[in-house]
Amino acid sequence: MVAAIGFIGLMVFSRWHSSAKKTTQAIAEEVNEHLYSKISSFLQVPEQINELNHKIIAGGILKLENDSDRDKFFAGVLHSYQDKSYSFSYGTVLGDYFGAQCNKNGTIEIIRKDSSTNGESWFYSVNEDFTAGEVIQKNGPYDPRTNLWYQTAVETQKPTFTPIYQNPIMEDLTLSFACPVYNNNGELEGVIGTHILLNNIGTFLKDTVSIYEGSAIILEKESNYLVANSLGDANFRFSEEGTWLRNNISAISDPDLQKAFETYQTEGLNDYFYRGKENLYINVRQVQKNGINWVIITSIPEDYLLSSFSKSIILAIILVIVFLALLFVLYTVVTGKILQPIRQLLLVTDAFSSGDLSKRVTVSRKDEIGKISESFNKVADKMQDLVINLESTVKERTEELYLANFALEENQNRLEMILNSTAEAIFGVDLKGNLTFCNQSCLIILGYESQDELLGKNVHVVIHHSHRDGEIIKTEDCKIFQAYTLGEKANSDSEVFWRKDGSFFEVSYHAYPQVQNGRIIGAVVTFMDITAQKLKEAEIEYLSYHDSLTGLINRRCFEEYRKKIDTKNNLPLSVIFADLNGLKMTNDVFGHSAGDELIKKSASILKQACRHDDIIARIGGDEFIVLLPKTERKFAERIIERINAGFEDARIEAIKCSISLGLDTKVDMNQKLDQIIANAENAMYRDKTVNRVATNNRILDTIIETLHARNPKEKRHSQNVASLCTQMGIALNYSETDIKILSRVGYLHDIGKIVLNQKIVENQDLTKEEKEQVRLHPVVGYRILNLFDDTLDLADYVYNHHERWDGSGYPKGLKGEEIPLISRIITIADAFERIYFKLDDPPKERKAKAIETFEKDVGTYFDPLLSSIFIQMVKEFDDFVYE
User: Fold this and answer.
1) Which domains occur in the chain, in start order?
2) Does residue 843 have a pLDDT over 80?
3) DSSP H helical segments within 252-389, as ranges?
4) Phi and psi at residue 232, in whole multiples of 5°?
5) 664 and 679 in contact (C-beta within 8 Å)?
6) Does the predicted model carry a pTM greater than 0.90?
7) Strand locations in 361-517, DSSP E?
8) How far, in Å, CA of 833 to CA of 854, rounded?
9) Within a 13 Å sphere around the CA of 354, how many CA atoms are in the beta-carbon half?
10) What is the pLDDT of residue 711?
C-alpha cells in the first residue's frame, strides 16, 4: 500500500512539475513578447514625429524666417507628443537652431539660436497660442552642428537613431532620432531631431516582471552597455573626475543573468533553460532599427510555480517516514505479546478450513487478539447457522445483491448527470467507430434531440465526413480513428463537425484512446464549438491589415500589396497620391469626431471614384495612396477628375471637403515603384501649393456662408459692422489698404460662432455654461483665421475684439491702448450695431436712443477718443446700416 501511495504521489508530482515548467517557460516568452511590443511602440514615436514633419520643413511649407509660425510649429508638435518626447528641434547647416523642449517641470519652452540671439541659445516661455513669450533663460554660444545627433544624421545621410548619450539638463540617458533635410539639389540644409528620455523604461520592466519574481534587462548588443533594467541598478555613473560613464552588463547585481547573456552570445539561443545559482527560463528578443541594435533579456525562475508545492511534498514525505518508523517499533513490541494467542487462532482456523466447524478459540484476554478470537467464534457460530439455514441465507444474499445493483445504477445515473452538466461536449466510440455514449452538450451542439439518434452509428460518417469546403475526409486520415487504432491521443482546432441539419461549425476536439485491462477498447472525444473564437480571430487579423476608421487597407497591408502588384503583367501601373485639405482645422475647430467624419467621407469618395480592382490605402493621418494596375496615365487622369467631382459638393460641419492629388505612371520594369510613388507625392505637393490660396478661400467662404445660413441676423450684423468699420476708416483718414483690412475684420469678427449651436446663437437667456461657450468664440475665430495666409494678419484683431477699455473684457483682460487699435474700432461698431437693432423705435428715434445708450459705456467699455469720432460719424449719416 505504501509503495502504491508513493508511486501515485510521484506520478502526480512529476506531471505537475512538468506542466509547471512548461507554463513558466511560456510566461517567459509572453513577458518578453510584451516587452518587445512596448519598446517597439516607444521607438516608433520619434520616427513618426520626424516622418510627419520632415515634409513640412523640407518642402518649405514652414517658413523658418517667420518667428511666429516657426515657434507655433515646434511648440505645437511637442505639445501633441509631450508625454512621449521631451524635445523636438531643427539645426541648420549654418548653425542656427530652433525648437521646443520640456523642462524638468514638464513645461514647454521655445528654443532659438540665430542672429537675433547673437549666436546664443535663448529659451522662451510659451503663450496660449503657442507663440514665444518672455525670455526665461539665456545660455552661452551654441552650435547644433557639434551635437551627436546632428553629426550622426549627416554621416549616415538618412533618418537614424543616434547612440545613447547623457542629457546634463534632464540628468538621464537620452536617445535621439535624427533626420537630414536636403534641398532639390541634394544639398544638406539641416537636421531634424526628436529626443526622448529612457528613464521610464526601467520602471516599466520592473512592473512587468515583478509579478513573476523575474528580471529583465535591455542592453546594446555590440557594446553590452545597459539601456534599462528591472533590478534597480544604475545604467550609468560618474567617475571621480565627474566624467559620465555608461555601465555594461557586468555592473548588474544578478550574476546568473550575466552568465545567461554570455550563453546567448556564445550559443546564439533565444529561448533556453539556464542552470546556475538559480535555475532560470531565459528568453531573448532583439530590437533592430536604423542606429539601434538592442537585446531584451527576460528571466523567470524555475521555482516560480514550484516552490510552495515542493515544500508541501517534502513535508508529507517526512511525516510518512516518521509514521512508518513508529509503526515498525510498535509492531516489534506488540508481536511478542500476541504471538501465542495467534498460534492458537491459527490452529483453530486450520481445523475450520478442513471442515471441522465445532472447534472454537479459547479467549484468554480482552485485548485486540481476544476480540478477534471472539469475532472468529461468532463467525464460526454464524457459519454453522448458515449451513443449517441455507435457504434463509440465500434469500438474504439475494436482497443484498439487489441493493448493490441499485447502488450501481444510482452511480451510473450520477455519472450521466455529471457528464450532462459539463459545457464541453463528450462522446465515446468503440473499435468500429460506432458511438457508445454521449452527453447532453454533445446533442445540443450537434442538433440532435436524444442519444437514440446517434447510438450505434459511425461517428466519422455522421459528423466528421468532410472538410468545410466539402472535400471528403478518408477514414484512415481521421485523427479520431487514429486515436483508437494507433493508441495515440490526437487534437485539432482547424477542422469542422457537421450538425444534423447539414450545417457545419468550427470545432476544437481532443481524442483519447480508451484502455481497459491493458488493451484499447475505443476512444473518448471531447469537443467545443469555437466558431465565435474563429470569427474573433478573423476580425483581429482584418483589423491588423485595415484602417479601423475607413475600412481601407493600412500602410502595413499596402507594403505587402505593392510587392505583389509591382509586376510586368500590371504595367502600365499608375499611382495617385492624395492628401486631405483642412483636416487640422476641422480637428482644432470642430473636434476630432468631425475630423474622423471628414476622413471617412474622403475615403468613401475615393472608393466611389476608383474601380473594383484598384488598391486604395490610408497610409497616414490625412494621406491616401491609390495603385491602379494596367492603367495608362490618361485614364488615371479621368479617375482624378471623378475624385475631384466627388469632393465638389462634399461638406463636413461647415468645412468644404477638398483634396490635393498627384499622379505618376510606371511604364517600364526598370523604373522603381518607390520613385513613382515619390513623383506622385511631389506632384500632390505641387497641386497643394498651387491651389492653396483658392482652397483656403473656399474653406473660409464655406464657414461664413454656413454661419449666415444658420442665422440671417448674423449675416446682417457682419455686413453692418463691416460698413461701420469702412466709414470709421474714412473718418480716420486711413489708406485704402487699411480701410479694406478694417472692413474685412469687421465682416469676419464673429466667424468663431460657427462652433456654437443655433439655439445659443439665437437665445438671449443663456445658462452659465452656455455663456462660457459664447466667450470662447474670439479664440475659435483666432484659430480659424490663423490657419490661412490671407487672414493671418487679421487673427489678433478678432482675438481681442471683446476686450474692454477698463480691462473688464475677455479673453485676456487687456485695457486701454494695450488693445490693438483695430480691435477697439471693431468693439465700438459691434456694440453699437447690437444696441441699434435691439430697439423697436422708428429709424431716426432709434439712432438717437442707440447713441444715448452707447454713450453710457464710453470710457469704461469703449475708447473715449474713437467713440467721439464714431458718434459724430453716425450722426452725419442716415443710411449707415443695412436693415
Assistant:
1) 16-39+202-227+237-304 (3.30.450), 43-199 (3.30.450.20), 307-388 (no CATH), 422-535 (3.30.450.20), 546-690 (3.30.70.270), 707-876 (1.10.3210.10)
2) no
3) 255-267, 307-353, 368-388
4) 85, 5
5) yes
6) no
7) 425-430, 435-438, 490-498, 504-516
8) 10
9) 9
10) 83
Confidence band, pLDDT 50/70/90 cuts, at residue 176: very high
Buried b (16+ CB within 10 A) or exposed e, 297-306: bbbbbbbbbb
Per-position DSSP letters for 52-100, written without gaps between them: HHHHHHHTT-S-TT-HHHHHHHHHHHHHHTTTT-SEEEEEETTS-EEEE
Higher-pLDDT residue of 194 and 790 is 194
Range scoring the smallest mean pLDDT among 417-421, 521-525, 654-658:
417-421
Q: Which residue has the higher pLDDT, 875 or 377?
A: 875
CA angle in degrees (0–180, nearest 5) for 718-722-726? 170
- Specify the pLDDT at position 688: 85
pLDDT at 421 over 80: no
Q: Which residues of 794-813 are buried (b: 16+ CB within 10 A; e: fewer)?
A: bbbbbbbbbbbbeeebebee
Q: Assign 759 a pLDDT band (cuts: 50, 70, 90).
A: confident
Compute the distance between CA of residue 614 and CA of residue 740 in angstroms, rounded to an integer.
49
Find the range with the poorest average confidence among 35-44, 314-323, 356-365, 533-542.
Answer: 356-365
Residue type, 366: K
Q: What is d(CA 664, CA 653) in angstroms, rounded to the nearest whole number?
A: 33
Helix (H) / strand (E) containing 540: helix 531-545
How many Cβ atoms sit within 10 Å of the Cβ of residue 780? 21
Give the pairing of strands 87-92 and 215-220: unpaired
In terms of pLDDT, which residue wins out, 566 or 343?
566
Q: Check whether 107 has a pLDDT greater than 80.
A: yes
Which whole number is the average pLDDT over 510-537? 89
Q: What is the DSSP letter of 582?
A: S
- CA 196 – CA 81 distance, rounded (Å): 10
In a 10 Å sphere around its CB, with 0-12 CB exposed, 13-18 middle and 19+ buried, how is residue 732 labelled?
middle
Percent of the chain with pLDDT over 70: 87
Taking the chain, what is the end-to-end CA distance rounded to the nearest angstrom?
110
* Angstrom distance (rounded) from CA 85 to CA 744: 41
* Residues whose CB falls within 8 Å of the CB of residue 459, separated by 6 or more in sequence, listed in order: 427, 429, 433, 434, 435, 480, 525
- Phi and psi of 267, rounded to 5°? -105, -15
Angstrom distance (rounded) from CA 718 to CA 284: 68
User: Which residues partner with 273 through β-bridges?
Assistant: 281
pLDDT at position 540: 82
In 3D space, the residue among 196, 193, 217, 195 whose CA is nearest the CA of residue 205 turns out to be 217
Which grid cell sits at 269? 539561443
